[in-house]
Amino acid sequence: MIEPFNHLSAVALPLARSNVDTDQIIPARYLQKPRAEDFGAWLFNDVREGPDGNPNADIPLLRPEYRDAKIVVAERNFGCGSSREHAVWALYDYGIRAALAPSFGDIFATNATKNGLLPVVLPAHVIAKMIADLYVRPGTRIAVDLPSQTVVAPDGAVHRFDVDPFVKRCLREGLDEIGYTLTYAAEIEAFEARHARDDA
User: Fold this and answer.
1) What pLDDT is stored for residue 185 in this prediction?
2) Does residue 14 sit in helix, strand or coil?
3) What average pLDDT does range 42-60 have in this prediction?
4) Where do the domains of the chain lie?
5) What are the φ/ψ torsions at residue 14 (nearest 5 degrees)?
6) Higher pLDDT residue, 50 or 12?
7) Selection from 192, 151, 106, 199 nearest residue 10 by Cα
8) What pLDDT does 191 receive?
């Protein structure tokens, strides 16, 4: 089971760079850690700071205004690169529950939904406006409503997004793949009973 996702209103973290890959999200040297570890501690570990040691302006994770963020707003192709599920674990363990971008790495998006993190695809110009607003007003909240499939941007504009019905059901009910299968436990047991009788 995963934490159900229905409504979220939270501080959003802007990422003003495209092609943020899974190695940037969590470096490869942490991939041998057991799942019980807090992967959120290593989120953006190697890109949190710039060469001068100050917080990275493109990934302002260390700025206090963004430390309570539960939403990421990124440019195109977020989560590209290797297929490591650990990237989603790092975001989720940090507290991120939704990511908004014009596009995502395909495997990242699949891993996200299986772990209770909602990837939302919105037009590039909408995302660009959100990122600009979040930099101007750090700590601004965004609202994501899965039942109505809408996002309320920092400027109050409402944007609709598409989501696969199966993914939507699993996220709303907090079902991982095993949990979804168990919703058919009665039907499975009935089938097995019929099969046993037929073989008798």
Assistant:
1) 58
2) strand
3) 89
4) 7-173
5) -85, 140
6) 12
7) 151
8) 58
* CA-closest candidate to residue 100, choices 70, 60, 62, 64: 70
User: What are phi and psi for residue 189, nearest 5 degrees?
Assistant: -65, -40
Burial call 147-178: b when 16+ CB within 10 Å, e when fewer: eeeebebbeeeebebebeeebbebbeeebeee
Q: What are phi and psi of 117, to 5 degrees?
A: -110, 125
The amino acid that residue 82 corresponds to is S
- Residue 53 pLDDT grade (very low, low, confident, very high; cuts 50, 70, 90): confident
Of 48-52, 124-128, 168-172, least confident by mean pLDDT is: 48-52
The tokens for 133 are 């607003």
Q: At a CB cut-off of 8 Å and minimum separation 6, what does 147 contact?
A: 6, 7, 172
Query: Residue 177 above 90 pLDDT?
Result: no
Residue type, 149: Q
Rounded Cα gap, residues 108 and 68, in angstroms: 23
7-173 fold: Aconitase; domain 4 (3.20.19)
Residues facing 153 on adjacent strands: none
Contact 75, 16 (CB under 8 A): yes
Residues 6+ apart with CB under 8 A from 88: 79, 108, 111, 112, 115, 117
Q: Using CA atoms, how far apart are residues 161 and 23, in angstroms rounded to an integer?
A: 27
Mean pLDDT (the chain, rounded)? 91
